[in-house]
Specification:
By secondary structure, the chain is α+β, with helices and mostly antiparallel strands. It is about 40% helix and about 20% strand. It has 15 helices and 14 strands. The chain has a five-stranded mixed β-sheet with strand order 5-6-7-2-12, covered by helices on one side. It has a four-stranded mixed β-sheet with strand order 8-14-13-11, covered by helices on one side. Helix 10 packs across helix 14 and helix 12 crosses helix 15. The longest helix is centred in the middle third of the chain and has 19 residues. It is globular, with a radius of gyration of 22 Å. The two termini are about 40 Å apart. About 0% of the residues have low confidence.
Length: about 500
């Protein structure tokens, strides 16, 4: 028999996943993922006044397990972030990595994050500008730049930083070229804001809203927050009222200081030990057959292909039938495809996680996301369901140790130095939320506009967006290694694996 606390947790669980859980049903077996887990914990904390860390929940991701953790006083607020209210802070580990990469390629747009939306219907540019002003003023990350302090970066919040909409009248036949030029403009990390917003006006009822942000101050979840808050502000101004947004308990700089302090205090020593053991003696190189020899020093030249995965409903159904998530299903197909292409049975694949371990940062814009190395074990000719079980096992182990930044995982594992490859993994599969679903500007309709940047962060990357019907997706590949025809052939192998197991 469940008590009131378990009943409250089950109610929130049901709202998020659309089914009533039993006390011992596992969250990820019911279709949950790490981002939904964060939302579950946030809503539970709002309702009960008690919270726990994500990693604590992942140890026993059930209604009864969460209730038991909440009843343990020692777990509550164990990792609270302090609001410091300062205009400077140390950088997070993720920011340090991007700052370092920018020093190596100062004119590069490799880490620009693009979001473009076609808006059909009436659009008031004055209200849109006012909405952007509110969101930029609300989130310190969007007013942040970086200063070099004796060779070490520091993040600086500029109180007066403002983002002005760049509005241009653009003919429909050149709109893609216009967006490409906007997307390719690099950022100077010493100058705030590291965000640009533009509107390409095709007609009075046809606009393209484009946002370009450096990854050092944003991530996928942050773009969701940006879209949602822009909508709330725009619609409030349309109604003649002031937008009502709850005060943020902390800002990104507070999180960065918390992360740095936690590393010094040994908060993640157990995760360091986990990754060192987990990846010991595991192959750290995946070589896909290439059209050209690998350069001694890896560059970022690349290309991007857009594609769709039509049967998203079939994938959701198959993932649920196998007792896991869409991300797990996609990862299984990706690993099977990489094994077929390379002839290797064991390797690592990178994947992104939300990286928001503390509830107070759920609605804060900033670079929280982390990339984790996931074991791929295709040995012994497993069936798809057998490989799925292996993928689920390795993903859940990684989720439970996701707080350690990628650079610190690399430091713990200490792979052989190789300037020709990215460390630990050379291929990536990610499943990301769709910010456009959160954009509602009056009665206007919003639809994704695909931007195809000419960069490559790894050898071969597939990013699938969690769109409502057919999944929207892009393939990013290194043009230093692969011709377009080769990349398309490898993509076809991935789609074949998906198709074979969703029938």
């Amino acid at each position: 028999m469940i008590d009131d606390l378990e009943r409250s947790i089950a109610d929130i669980w049901s709202q998020l996943l659309g089914e009533d859980p039993g006390p011992h049903d596992r969250f990820f077996d019911s279709g949950g993922d790490s981002l939904l887990a964060i939302r579950l914990l946030s809503r539970v904390e709002a309702r009960t006044g008690h919270g726990i860390e994500l990693t604590e929940f992942l140890r026993q991701p059930t209604v009864s397990g969460l209730a038991a953790a909440l009843r343990t006083p020692a777990t509550a607020d164990a990792a609270a972030i302090e609001r410091r209210g300062l205009d400077s802070a140390r950088v997070s580990f993720g920011q340090y990595r991007l700052w370092f990469m920018q020093q190596l390629e100062p004119g590069s747009a490799t880490y620009n994050v693009l979001w473009a939306v076609r808006i059909t219907g009436a659009l008031d540019l004055t209200r849109l500008q006012a909405a952007v002003d509110v969101v930029v003023a609300r989130h310190e990350a969007l007013r942040t730049c970086f200063a070099d302090r004796a060779g070490e970066p520091e993040q600086i919040v500029r109180a007066d930083a403002r983002v002005r909409l760049e509005v241009d009248d653009v003919a429909p036949e050149v709109i893609s070229e216009h967006v490409d030029r906007f997307a390719a403009r690099p950022f100077d990390l010493t100058r705030a804001p590291l965000l640009r917003a533009a509107v390409a006006r095709v007609s009075a009822t046809d606009h393209l809203f484009v946002v370009n942000v450096h990854h050092a101050v944003t991530d996928g979840r942050s773009m969701e927050i940006f879209a949602r808050e822009i909508s709330l502000c725009y619609n409030a101004f349309t109604a003649g009222t002031e937008p009502e947004l709850p005060e943020l308990p902390v800002q990104y700089g507070d999180y960065a200081e918390w992360q740095r302090d936690g590393m010094t205090a040994g908060r993640w020593d157990d995760q360091i030990a986990f990754w060192r053991t987990e990846l010991a003696d595991w192959p750290l190189v995946l070589d896909l057959p290439a059209d050209r020899p690998r350069s001694p020093v890896r560059g970022s030249a690349g290309a991007t292909l857009h594609f769709t995965i039509p049967d998203s409903a079939g994938i959701r159904s198959a993932a649920r039938r196998l007792g896991g998530t869409v991300h797990m299903f996609l990862m299984t197909a990706f690993q099977a495809a990489m094994a077929r292409i390379s002839g290797q049975e064991r390797f690592l694949v990178g994947t992104a996680v939300a990286g928001r371990p503390v509830i107070s940062v759920e609605d804060v814009i900033g670079f929280f996301a982390n990339t984790l190395p996931i074991k791929a074990d295709c040995s012994g000719a497993p069936t798809f369901s057998e490989l799925f079980d292996r993928v689920r096992h390795h993903l859940l182990r990684a989720y439970a140790n996701q707080d350690l930044p990628l650079d610190q995982i690399v430091h713990a594992v200490r792979p052989p130095r190789d300037t020709a490859r990215t460390p630990l993994f050379q291929t990536v599969l990610t499943f990301v939320p769709d910010p456009t679903t959160h954009l509602r500007l009056g009665a206007a309709e919003a639809a994704n506009h695909v931007v195809l940047p000419r960069v490559s962060r790894v050898d071969f990357l597939i990013e699938v967006t969690d769109t409502t019907h057919a999944f929207d997706a892009v393939l990013e590949y290194s043009t230093e290694l692969f011709d377009r025809t080769t990349a398309e052939k490898y993509l076809a192998t991935f789609l074949e694996e998906l198709d074979a197991w969703t029938r």
